[in-house]
Amino acid sequence: MYQEKAKILWNNQAGNEYYRIGLTCHKGYSGAKPGQFIMLHFPGRMAPFLPRPFSIHRIIKTGGRTAGIELLYKVVGKGTKMLSGHCKGDVVNILGPLGNGFIFSNHYKRIFIVAGGIGVAPMLFLASYLKTKGTNSSECMVFLGGRSKDDLLCSDDFLRMGMKIHITTDDGSAGDQCFVTHPLETALERDRPDIIYACGPLEMLKCVAGISEKHTVPCQVSIETVMACGMGACLGCAVERKEASGNYMHVCFDGPVFDVRCLEL
Amino acid sequence: MFRDGLGTDKSRLGIKLYGFIDMNKKKSHMRVNIGGITLKNPVLTASGTFGYASEFEKLIDLNRLGGIIVKGLSLEASRGNPPPRIVETPCGMLNAIGLENVGLEAFVKEKLPFLKMIDAPVFVNIYGKSIADYADLASRLEDIEEIAGIEVNISCPNVTCGGMAFGAYSESAAQVVRAVRKSTTRPMMVKLSPNVTDITEIARSVEGEGADSISLINTITGMAIDIETRRPKLANITGGLSGPAIRPVALRMVWQVAQVVNVPVIGVGGIMTAEDALEFLIAGAVAVQVGTANFINPHATIDIIEGIEAFLEERNIVDLSDIIGTLNV
Asked: Residues in chain A with pLDDT < 50?
């Protein structure tokens, strides 16, 4: 875990409301796992008051060395609006890598990745991580959903890695007009995967969880909640366990990636 | 074996402390005494914002802290309030964590071994649902040598029984403090709520019952509403406001209390920088607690310690006590 001032390497628009920002970081991020996140804050600013969590989208490497991290973000509120106005060379405060990433096991051969909207952010990092683990890309299937074609990101990146991809949109402007969980279930019934990794809106995750339970396929989801510190001090990011028993879990240190069987979504 | 590990660790962590002393410049004395305990500097961590300290181990040298006040502890583990528990507000935040904590047994087993290794006094913030709970908890902590003192929490706004219910009236505040005093010989700090008509009255009353020091303020009760859903933004409906938004209120209350009690006052409320801390010290606080700032800048406590030190040295103030309570009115 490192607290540092990070210089912005680039902050490029990646669609209507989406941006990719490159940040310098400590070389220790070479050990970051997909699904881990950072807290980002603007130095000396009282608004937004609290830092904001962002999952790591990509590790930037130059000559094999870790030179930075890239975040993919959507402008949704004050914080992200302000971030989108920052330029190359500006400095932000970052703390990370935080939380627990997706867990990979060597017996995962056939892998489904489900991403809805900005939920794709950690999934590109996951996909490249899976490649380094020797996963056969043709056995990986990506289900990418969005409201419209403007909300579909990274499809080319997944294709370039040799992964199969299913696209759905709510308005039918690209791919099939349905929820991303439709092709997921169809594909799953045809050929069971060893694991489903998912990140996206809560309603999508609930549906993915339902499919995973119905077909008894293991599933890990990455979730987001409001949080103040990102490191286990504030306890603001409480989430309910399955069956609402015992103590709460906390997104920042128990997650943000959870085995869907443990979590009450 | 454990003791060996402890010694090694302390010296390893201690290196940074003495790493660069400018021999030409006279070092100002930062030591303060808060009701029987000498702190190496006046900066403590506020309860509920610093976990059990281990969370910050990788980010700061914990041995440099004036003191550590750990997350509010109860006899039994408590799961706290349902989410959402926090919401950002202008220059601050509302929280309704509800004193989620591991309980005494797990605290002793899982958290204390780490805390023992830190070369800074550790205070345990305690709360109970009844006066007997407070007394019981205090007496059980009495056996643990490594705990420097306790902070009696009669001011949490987010639990339905206990907490602020006791701190809101002089009589009930006095009853809790009296019971805890009978159960402990350790230095006892009492944390006051600002959600009262006259905080000086409560302060005098807890001082009368044997409080060794008084910390103030806990959070100010507040709320926030989502205008689309017309629902409260916190599941608990109300929460405690913290951060710079409450600093002027905290400062005023610290100033008022410092004038009417003889025991040391510890200032808490929206301290983000050394300048903020100095305001409290000038108003009469002998030490300060840094809370919400830890969430935004985990290094805040160290920055504040260094900032106060630099302030004193730049003005050739030899001893921190030369500025405490020196408000010119």
From this structure: none
Question: Tokens at residue B222, please?
Answer: 């507040």
ipTM score:
0.94
Angle at the Cα of B191 from the Cα atoms of B188 and B193, rounded to 5 degrees: 155
CATH assignment of the domain containing B145 = 3.20.20.70
| pTM exceeds cut of 0.90 | yes
B50-83 residue pLDDT tens:
999 999 999 999 999 999 999 999 999 999 999 9
Q: What is the residue extent of each domain of chain A?
A: 2-98, 111-262
* Domain-located, residue B132: yes
Percent of chain B predicted with pLDDT > 90:
84
H or E segment and range at residue B136: helix B131-141
User: What is the token pair recorded at A265?
Assistant: 């979504």
Distance CA A22, CA B47 (A): 36
Contact A248/B56, CB-based, under 8 Å? Answer: no
pLDDT tens-digit readout, B205-261: 999 999 999 999 999 999 999 999 999 999 999 999 999 999 999 999 999 999 999
B223 found inside a domain: yes
Which chain B residues contact residue A265 at CB under 8 A? Answer: none
Output the CA torsion sign for A53, A58, A64, A67.
Answer: negative
B189 part of a folded domain:
yes
Instruction: Note whether residue B10 is domain-resident.
Output: no
Q: What is the pLDDT of residues A179-219, one digit of tens each?
A: 989 899 999 999 999 999 999 999 999 999 999 999 999 99
Same CATH fold, A111-262 and A2-98? no
Cβ of A236 and B80 within 8 Å?
A: no
Alpha carbon distance B182, B196 (integer Å): 26
- Residues of chain B with Cβ-Cβ distance to A225 below 8 Å are 83-84
Q: Is B315 in CB contact (< 8 Å) with chain A?
A: no
SS3 state at A137? helix
B276 is in which domain, residue-wise?
Answer: 31-322
Nearest residue of A to residue B96, measured between CA atoms: A236
What is the number of domains present in chain B?
A: 1
* Fold of domain A2-98: Elongation Factor Tu (Ef-tu); domain 3 (2.40.30)
pLDDT at B322 over 60: yes
Q: Is B296 on the interface with A (CB under 8 A)?
A: yes
CATH of domain A111-262: 3.40.50.80
| Residues of B whose CB is below 8 A from A229 | 294-295, 298
Structural contact between residues A143 and A184, judged by C-beta atoms closer than 8 angstroms = yes
Interface of A with B (CB under 8 A): 1, 3, 41, 46-51, 93, 95, 225-229, 231-240, 246-248
